[in-house]
Amino acid sequence: xxxxxxxxxxxxxxxxxxxxxxxxxxxxxxxxxxxxxxxxxxxxxxxxxxxxxxxxxxxxxxxxxxxxxx
Length: 70
Known about the structure:
Elements: E1 17-19, E2 27-28, E3 41-43, E4 51-52, E5 65-67
Parallel strand pairs: 1-3, 2-4, 3-5
């Protein structure tokens, strides 16, 4: 995966974990995870991330684990 559309997760409000590791993501929109209010774990490690949107984690109030390493 090299790109994810901003509204890709809008209908997944009950999602608890999201695994996006080992892709080729270069940037992540600030609105990408806005609907994932129940997300607990987010894996973004081993991508090619150069840019992360300003408010990307704003609505992730239940986020307990975040993996960003390469």
